[in-house]
Design brief:
The chain is of the alpha+beta class. The protein has one domain: Double-stranded beta-helix (4-Layer Sandwich), CATH 3.60.130.10. The strands form 7 sheets. The chain has a 6-stranded mixed β-sheet. β15 and β16 form a beta hairpin. α2 crosses α4. The two termini are 25 Å apart.
């Protein structure tokens, strides 16, 4: 049974006013690289009018509900008359709303509070020929939680947000969220994997088009981390990458768990749209999306999205590497 959530709409006047304040504060706003975490936070902290207060309150209520855990917000068009400026201001509004929910980590390359991902048919064709895995809109993403790898070890961020800047598909499908509370076989797999028991995850090399269309890559690595972690008061689930090395029991359990999540009769769904922001509790559930189909021809990019990762996160494993397979991975593992 799918429970469909409806997306709320960010007010046009509020997004316009936030953009005006940001331009007044920074003096320049012609690129995504001009969106600075500190400047966005400064406006939010001094927001006497509460531009997004009502929106944030509704989102927080959904995120705290153990049987929901996700919210969707549509950023309006017409913030600016110029199409390029309008797109930038929409990304700024998505950044402001996400930042009001949880402080984001900074992208180390350009200090933005998000990472931009682009997919193009040209680049995807080249990567297919090379036999490399990449972020293709036409690949289905199964249910997973997002992980973050820092120098200290493996972390599970509290919140993840994804904003679709542009989707050049006529049928992009839906985004899905499965709260832990609604997963019927949770206890069976928790017992089978054990709590705080290491599993080897193979993080496949990922290649994607960066902000300027250049090809970027994150190296494939193997890490050890528990699927189910607990310190006696808090619990987290780390399920990202593939369990395809090490214990044959773990490999089969991982496949069975992926199937269990896909077959679970209850989940939350919301159609994927341009300018739609998804904010989810990464500590309360799994997320997935459909395969995108019916691509629009003649466009430079097939999909462009920005991803926010909360600074607040739970460490589930100290830095450790299985050196028979790979080297430590310290960057964020993308959606």
């Amino acid at each position: 049974m799918y429970s469909f959530i409806s997306a709320s709409a960010a007010g046009l006047a509020h997004t316009q006013e936030f953009a005006r304040r940001y331009l007044t504060l920074t003096g320049e706003f012609t690129s995504l690289s001009h969106i600075e975490k500190s400047k966005v936070q400064e406006i939010l902290n001094d927001d006497r009018d509460g531009l997004f207060a009502a929106q944030v309150e509704k989102i927080q209520a959904k995120l705290k509900d153990p049987e929901i855990g996700i919210a969707a917000v549509d950023i309006p068009t017409g913030i600016m008359d110029n199409a390029a400026a309008d797109t930038l201001c929409a990304c700024l509004a998505a950044t402001a709303i996400s930042s009001a929910i949880a402080e984001p980590t900074e992208n180390e390359r350009n200090a933005t509070p998000f990472t931009l991902y682009n997919a193009s048919q040209k680049n995807e064709d080249k990567l297919k020929e090379a036999g490399l895995k990449f972020y293709s809109p036409e690949e289905r993403l199964g249910f997973h939680t997002d992980g973050q790898l820092r120098p200290e070890g493996v972390f599970v961020p509290d919140f993840i947000s994804v904003y679709n800047v542009m989707i050049a598909y006529r049928q992009p499908g839906s985004f899905y969220y499965l709260p832990f509370e609604l997963w019927r076989e949770r206890e069976e797999f928790r017992e089978a994997f054990g709590v705080n028991q290491d599993v080897r995850f193979s993080l496949t090399p990922i290649v994607y088009a960066g902000q300027n269309g250049e090809i970027e890559s994150s190296d494939g690595r193997v890490i050890k981390a528990p699927v189910f972690w607990s310190d006696g008061t808090k619990e987290r689930v780390f399920f990202n990458g593939e369990v395809d090395v090490g214990s044959k029991v773990h490999i089969q359990l991982s496949r069975d768990m992926s199937r269990s999540l896909l077959d679970n009769p209850e989940r939350i769904a919301c159609p994927i749209r341009n300018r739609r922001l998804f904010i989810m509790s990464n500590s309360r559930g799994f997320h997935a999306r459909d395969v995108f189909s019916d691509p629009i021809k003649g466009v430079p990019y097939t999909r462009s999205f920005i991803r926010f990762v909360s600074r607040a996160a739970q460490q589930v494993k100290k830095s450790e590497i299985d050196r028979r397979y790979a080297q430590p991975m310290l960057e964020t593992a993308p959606v």
